[in-house]
Amino acid sequence: MEWHTSRGAACLESIVPRDYTGIIQCDGYSGYTSFIKSDWRRDLIVLIGCMAHARRKFFEAKAEGADAQWVLAQIQHLYVIEARAREARAGPIEIRQIRQQQSQVILEQIKARLDELESSHKHRPKSLTGMAISYALNQWEKLTMYVRDGRVQIDNNLIENAIRPSAIGKKNWLFMGDASTGQRAATFYTLIGNSQKEGINAEAYLTDIFKRLPSATTETVKHLTPKAWAAEKCAEKHATSTQPAPVTA
User: Fold this and answer.
1) pLDDT of residue 245
2) Which of 201, 192, 199, 203 is nearest to 162 (CA)?
3) In 121-180, alpha helices (H)
């Protein structure tokens, strides 16, 4: 995890390697679009949208009437298709086929309805439904890109869920410390997040490495990452379990 004092497109330069080519899945924040349009990145990175972000806007608008509710129902159908594919343990090629055969039709119906609503001016642009429609149409190509690639998800909820604790923390700790502490917090979040990923107790891990860090060298410090620490503990547990039982007379 990295921390910056703003969300400007320039911040992404220190996060995404300069030679990176491929996919970035994200919300509709304009900074991402500006980032991939830089001279040396043009046509090298593809942005894929997040259906959860689009859905959230219609969810916020559902009290305004049937139009937002209809869109929510169609998006729910898309998520059912995804759930069934996961249950079937489908691979990327099969997922792509499923999406093109089942999801594409639903997406076309949603798009047609959104175009109709926008052209009819039924909803005021500043209403919740109007803003949800505008967001979805502006992001439509990115939102539907997942249908073409079975490797990507319909949304980026996995990342959203992973960073939620820090997002909540930002509000709680807004006036504590100064800007320089942000990167320290990001370091701890990274260690704790990787501990969770490796299935180890973050408190036990941090307690142990803080004891070992003073004597660590540039050669041995690599053994103190959550992944290495988890492997070390697994090896210790295996060695203990395979030791022969003591013989008693």
Assistant:
1) 60
2) 192
3) 128-138, 140-144, 157-172
